[in-house]
Amino acid sequence: MAKMYNRQAAVQYANLWWNRRNPAFPNFTVDCTNYISQCLLAGGAPMRGAPNRERGWWVQHSNWSFSWSVAHSLRWYLEGSKNGLKGRRVQSAEELDLGDVIFYDFQGDGRIDHSVIVTSIQNGIPYVNAHTSDSINRPYFYEDSTAYTPSMTYYYIHIDDSFA
């Protein structure tokens, strides 16, 4: 039987750890994707690929895959994965659910710079939590961010409900 993504558990974790660091995991100066990975793991996402840092999505003690900690790598992992944790890019924020992920390309140059998790939806608009500049229940637009540019591109990723 396929294991299901527990969106509520992912959101609960996101809300518990939004402004602090879980000592069970590595801590990064740029911590956004490490935090998102922890949220996905809390939702039941299975790790695979260890110990090869260039394969899969995983963390073990003081070692981890690039996709665990680098936004650009996690985006490609989610969209390319054929089993376990996978996601698909959708066209609009309105297609997202709790526990889904949004990636930001601040310069619009095709390189992902930031990742957040959807923790609530209010009037059809996803609100998100993030690390690095820790934030909770923030509108996903990020127009008030110091990193915002008019060229900013959003990548809306719907996490598959089943980890088959």
TrEMBL record:
<feature type="domain" description="Putative amidase">
    <location>
        <begin position="5"/>
        <end position="155"/>
    </location>
</feature>
<dbReference type="InterPro" id="IPR024301">
    <property type="entry name" value="Amidase_6"/>
</dbReference>
<dbReference type="Pfam" id="PF12671">
    <property type="entry name" value="Amidase_6"/>
</dbReference>
<protein>
    <submittedName>
        <fullName>Amidase domain-containing protein</fullName>
    </submittedName>
</protein>
